Amino acid sequence: MKKYFFLILCSFFFTSCATWTGIKQDTSTAWEVIKDLSSQSWEDTKDTSSSIYNRTKEKTDELMK
User: Fold this and answer.
1) The pTM of the whole model exceeds 0.70
2) Distances from the Cα of 60 to the Cα of 16, 47, 50, angstroms
């Protein structure tokens, strides 16, 4: 009985360790993907805002002449 209890306890321990390692790795991978997508989105937003600003400024300058 003690032998089976010890085996079950060990299996839970090693399973949880493997799961925790997997969770840490998955979290790290997800964070990298989110960081890359956020950076890309920010660059696209900056480019779009800049082009809109420049076009608006050009139109305003044309109208003011």
Assistant:
1) no
2) 64, 20, 15
